[in-house]
Specification:
The protein is mainly alpha-helical. Helix content is 70%, strand content 0%. The protein is built from four helices and no strands. It has helices at 10-13, 16-34, 37-50, 57-83. Helix 2 runs antiparallel to helix 3 (37-50) and helix 2 packs parallel to helix 4. The relative contact order is 0.15.
């Protein structure tokens, strides 16, 4: 299965630290809008710290894909709100 990270800029997708920082930025943005910044940021930090000693390349790739999926979903959600158009397919 192809990696979801191809939808992100390579400098972000290939670098875990940059991916982490972008996830934190999005968490702060979401948290600010929902008035629970600390909770959302702590959730992101916890997920990254939980897996920081992972050495299996396949598992690392899956974790990075999961983080990329979260970023992409949030970007699509915000784009849909701004444009009034639906980009994702509904079942």
């Amino acid at each position: 299965m192809p990696s979801l990270q191809t939808a992100l800029p390579p400098e972000l997708a290939n670098n875990v630290i940059r991916l982490y920082r972008e996830c934190l930025r999005r968490a702060k943005y979401i948290g600010h809008r929902q008035h629970n910044t600390e909770l959302v940021v702590d959730m992101v930090r916890h997920q990254f710290k939980k897996h920081m000693h992972e050495t299996d390349p396949e598992k690392i790739q899956k974790l990075k894909d999961d983080a990329a999926r979260g970023l992409i979903n949030h970007i699509l959600y915000e784009s849909e709100k701004m444009s009034g158009r639906k980009f994702s397919k509904s079942a």
